[in-house]
Amino acid sequence: MSAVLEVRGVYKRFGGVVALEDVSLAVAPGEVVAVVGPNGSGKTTLVNVISGYVAPDRGSVLLEGRDITRWSAERRVRAGVVRSFQFPLLFPNLTVEENLRVAASGLKPYTLGEVDRRVVEEALHLFDLEAVRRRRVTELSEGHRKLLDVALAFVFKPKVVLLDEPTSSVSSQEKFAVMEKIVEVVKKSGASAVVVEHDLEVVKKFTDRVVQMMAGRVVKVAKTAEWSHD
Ligand code: ADP
To answer: Which of 60, 78, 86, 127 has CB atoms 3.0–4.6 Å from 69's, for a disulfide?
Structure first.
């Protein structure tokens, strides 16, 4: 099986609510997969199951054919399954560069201060953040904040990056530029991405395949070019 990531027959229930019901999904190397569906359809729970924040009741998650269902979120990050950090998790009063240094030091918690500068420089370069490296997060445009968010994930050299609405709250002018850069870096680095995205224009323009969810189930999977929303 050539999939980098596989979800097989996952079920998850919260009390009486069935959040995921027999969800399966395979992501090929280099592929950008959109997960779409109305609120409450299970998209976030699926990302949480993949990243290890939620344990499925049944089913499994595989990375390059290895069963990682019982691995902690941290172990998955080290193995290359990385979720983009959400803005509230950034340190708002630190600069772009400092936030990246904190993320990079997370790779080696006992060598704080001895961060590999190349990792930070590469992330700044990949995401075109060099010009704003000394700006605090509070001084950034929403677009730059989103790029930093994803850049933090790339510090961990992901095989699969999980993006939860990377363009939400970004202005419509900035939206395409932000997504274009993210997809460019994903493709260039040979990673794959699973993107929860509401904006169908962004889905159509930047993703390879669409997984459509409804009430905890996958109701349609199609190549983006052949996909129509119904
Ligand atoms: P989406 O991301 O598509 O909006 P979610 O995965 O957030 O959907 O939610 C799917 C269903 O599971 C919803 O009915 C939601 O209320 C429920 N749910 C999600 N997380 C929890 C939780 N931690 N506790 C209880 N119910 C939850």
So the answer is: 60
Residue 136 half-sphere exposure toward CB, CA atoms < 13 A = 6
Give the global pTM: 0.92
pLDDT score at 47: 96
Which of 7, 12, 14, 20 for a ligand 1 pocket mutation test, highest count of atoms within 8 Å of Cβ?
Answer: 14
pLDDT at 84: 87
Q: Which domain holds residue 101?
A: 87-142
* Total number of domains in the chain: 2
**Span 209-228, average pLDDT:** 96
The CB of 19 under 6 Å from ligand 1? The reply is yes
133 and 97 Cβ atoms separated by less than 8 Å: yes
Strands 5-14 and 58-63: antiparallel
**ipTM greater than cut 0.85:** yes
Question: Do 91 and 62 fall within a single domain?
Answer: no
